Design the sequence.
């Protein structure tokens, strides 16, 4: 029996963003990473193109993240104490496409490292690995303005992806990105309208949306995952239908959010019958990452080596067939 | 083509008899238009109207029941949209634990006990493995019948009978026909005989084929033989192809009203590597499978997958709420801190999680804000100092603690003065703006 034609006719293409710069382009990376460019929904290649595979960023931090469970620290090993070595392990052993460095050491309520110390960390990671770099501030807006500026200078020309521009600091981030030729993450608090608004603000401030990756505060599985999953889908559909302000690649910060929630922190002594944390934790991260991948994420930030391996295999499989 | 509520209404008896469970014929018509009721649910419908509209008004994806009537019966299908924001996803994916044919009788029974016990409670909702996929491949007809009978009698959940030899599956199905198992599965090679097994035993049937065209033919043949409850079956291990096919089948049914594929789908995701299996099962939880067969029965795999189904099938139009009451986190005493927050589930669980992380046993007083978070509730007048004070009173919080210190969300500093002025809570402390600040806040402000 002939089956009725069900192909969608998407009219628009998601913008492409290239992260990293090789020597020819004024940087020191061995290769660049390009995301976006889709003319169809995730992996539905019968009605459009997926020219660039979704990529995995290894989540690292400048100081050992407070609150991460021992099973995660053990899985990563001693390198967790050195961002440069941690980055190397991500690239060499876990085979990540790029590194996502969070500069939590800058947090005034935490280690309160100065901007120049943070910039040194960025430099050390850029020297230790030759994949492109994403780096984020410490979530303290005042501090981040200063910190990101200095880190940006230190990485000038490397075309890093910097997080994140919000409704309140987009001018600073746009200026930094323009001055030092970096790309910028536009972030919104689980709100698709604010997501679009931040893009508009960045564009109005003179920053090209061709250099922007969209981000929603990524929810862990079970903690608002349904909201963020649906925002990813709606953003992608709007982009494919012709809304140029939404036709941007998206990043899901899965690793960072997963390792804060009960199911990824507490072992079966607290949650009897729920399985060993050493398995459940990375499963929690992997399950959320799978959802976001199919909702339209172009970059998945992951922390546990098992999650990274599982998602790399899944993406290989989906892109090969 | 889809009919409007008015199109349907014109053909109803307009008697407002209420026998359908709705107050008026128009209300019923609207339900039919929304594809939540079938026109045939109208007891007074004329035969003429029935014939004219039966086809056009039936839900574009059939609701399929598996298992005997009762709480454990699995209902899948009757979905209306491709994306949950367009309406919602209705009947959550059922996880089916596989019982391999290679297991001994003792092992198979032990495995079934594991399936029976795979039931959990998360955020106040029960989540569980809801089917047992019993493989009879390679067994003799007698052994298959024996195994099906033993396991079905012991099972908390409905069964899937997995096999390719119609004679063996027929023996197993015959032994437990009253349990309405899902016959798995009709293929191009066994179609006629396997359809007969389902028809003879009045059981639902899974069907699989290499292409959607062949699958539509199989489903049509089943319907012609009187098997109306069909589940479209796909191999999850061929992920990319299955993703395309399961999406195409659902589009054909929902967007083009293509009847031959108007059935729910299922995916066999069973494999030896638990991480690979988790990825496959999570993929098809998001993407349209009503049933997913897996091997893993450890909580570490089940809880994430069941939570994913719980999330994906949440109604996006209804804010998730928790009951507005006083929650105790940890071993609280009469000197434990008291915090209040809203009944928006996300807000509450963020606060609860961070309080747990702080390791400071605490009371959390949840104020009913109709499912709005702190700022939205404040802007929408769903939370006020007066309401907070009233809620504290209703929950008898003052009887639980000897102090009168109240920690309020950092986003509501104006509440402090009014609460202190109008209640016995004389020491109001402004907490952090975000839940993530709670551990440090409690460490620094509560001894």
Sequence:
């Amino acid at each position: 029996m002939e089956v009725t034609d069900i192909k969608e006719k998407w009219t628009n293409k998601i913008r492409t963003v290239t992260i990293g710069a090789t020597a020819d382009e004024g940087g020191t990376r061995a290769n660049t990473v390009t995301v976006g460019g889709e003319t169809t929904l995730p992996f539905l290649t019968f009605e459009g193109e997926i020219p660039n595979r979704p990529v995995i960023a290894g989540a690292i931090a400048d100081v050992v993240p407070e609150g991460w469970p021992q099973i995660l620290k053990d899985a990563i090993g001693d390198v967790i104490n050195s961002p440069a070595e941690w980055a190397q392990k991500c690239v060499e052993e876990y085979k990540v496409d790029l590194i996502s460095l969070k500069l939590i050491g800058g947090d005034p309520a935490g280690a309160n490292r100065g901007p120049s110390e943070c910039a040194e960390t960025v430099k050390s990671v850029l020297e230790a690995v030759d994949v492109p770099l994403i780096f984020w501030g410490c979530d303290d807006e005042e501090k981040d303005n200063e910190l990101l500026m200095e880190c940006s200078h230190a990485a000038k020309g490397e075309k890093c992806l910097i997080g994140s521009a919000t409704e309140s600091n987009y001018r600073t981030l746009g200026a930094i990105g323009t001055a030092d030729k970096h790309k910028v993450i536009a972030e919104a608090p689980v709100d698709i309208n604010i997501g679009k608004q931040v893009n508009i603000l960045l564009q109005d401030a003179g920053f090209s949306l061709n250099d922007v990756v969209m981000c929603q505060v990524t929810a862990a599985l079970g903690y608002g995952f349904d909201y963020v999953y649906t925002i990813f889908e709606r953003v992608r559909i709007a982009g494919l239908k012709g809304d140029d302000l939404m036709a941007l690649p998206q990043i899901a910060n899965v690793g960072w959010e997963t390792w804060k929630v009960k199911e990824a922190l507490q072992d079966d002594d607290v949650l009897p019958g729920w399985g060993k944390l050493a398995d459940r934790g990375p499963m929690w991260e992997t399950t959320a990452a799978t959802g976001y991948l199919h909702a339209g994420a172009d970059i998945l930030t992951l922390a546990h080596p098992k999650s990274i391996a599982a998602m790399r295999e899944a993406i290989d499989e989906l892109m090969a067939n | 083509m889809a009919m409007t509520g008015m199109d349907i209404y014109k053909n109803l008896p307009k008697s407002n008899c209420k026998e359908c469970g709705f107050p008026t014929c128009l209300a019923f018509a609207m339900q039919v238009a929304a594809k939540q009721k079938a026109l045939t649910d109208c007891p007074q419908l004329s035969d003429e109207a029935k014939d004219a509209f039966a086809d056009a008004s039936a839900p574009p994806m059939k609701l399929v029941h598996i298992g005997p009537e009762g709480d454990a019966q699995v209902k899948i299908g009757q979905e209306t949209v491709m994306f949950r924001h367009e309406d919602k996803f209705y009947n959550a994916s059922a996880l089916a634990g596989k019982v391999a044919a290679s297991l001994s009788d003792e092992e198979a029974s032990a495995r079934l006990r594991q399936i029976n016990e795979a039931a959990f409670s998360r955020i106040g909702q029960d989540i569980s493995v809801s089917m047992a996929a019993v493989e009879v491949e390679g067994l003799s007809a007698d052994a298959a019948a024996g195994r099906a009978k033993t396991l079905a009698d012991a099972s908390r959940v409905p069964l899937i009978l997995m096999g390719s030899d119609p004679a063996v599956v027929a023996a197993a199905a015959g032994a437990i026909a009253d349990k309405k198992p899902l016959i798995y599965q009709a293929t191009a090679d066994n179609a006629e005989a396997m359809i007969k097994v389902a028809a003879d035993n009045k059981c639902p049937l899974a069907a699989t084929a290499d292409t959607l065209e062949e699958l539509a033919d199989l489903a049509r043949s089943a319907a012609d033989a009187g098997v109306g409850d069909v589940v479209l079956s796909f191999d999850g291990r061929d992920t990319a192809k299955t993703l395309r096919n399961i999406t195409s089948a659902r589009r054909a049914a929902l967007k083009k009203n293509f009847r031959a594929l108007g059935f729910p789908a299922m995916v066999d995701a069973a494999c030896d590597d638990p991480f690979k299996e988790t990825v496959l099962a999570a993929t098809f939880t998001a993407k349209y499978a009503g049933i997913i067969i897996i091997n893993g029965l450890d909580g570490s795999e089940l809880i994430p997958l069941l939570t994913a189904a719980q999330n994906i099938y949440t109604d996006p139009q209804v804010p998730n709420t928790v009951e507005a009451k006083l929650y105790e986190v940890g071993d609280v005493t009469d000197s434990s801190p008291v915090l209040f927050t809203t009944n928006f589930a996300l807000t509450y669980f963020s606060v609860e999680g961070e309080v747990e992380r702080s390791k400071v046993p605490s009371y959390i007083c949840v104020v009913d804000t109709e499912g709005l978070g702190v700022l939205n509730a404040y802007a929408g007048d769903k939370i006020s100092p007066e309401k907070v004070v009233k809620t504290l009173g209703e929950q008898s919080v003052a009887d639980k603690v000897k102090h009168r210190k109240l920690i309020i969300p950092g986003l509501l500093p104006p509440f402090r003065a009014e609460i202190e002025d109008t209640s016995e809570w004389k020491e109001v402390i402004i907490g952090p703006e975000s839940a993530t600040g709670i551990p440090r806040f409690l460490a620094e402000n509560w001894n």
In short: Chain B has three domains: 5-57, 63-312, 326-445. The first helix of chain B runs from residue 5 to 10.
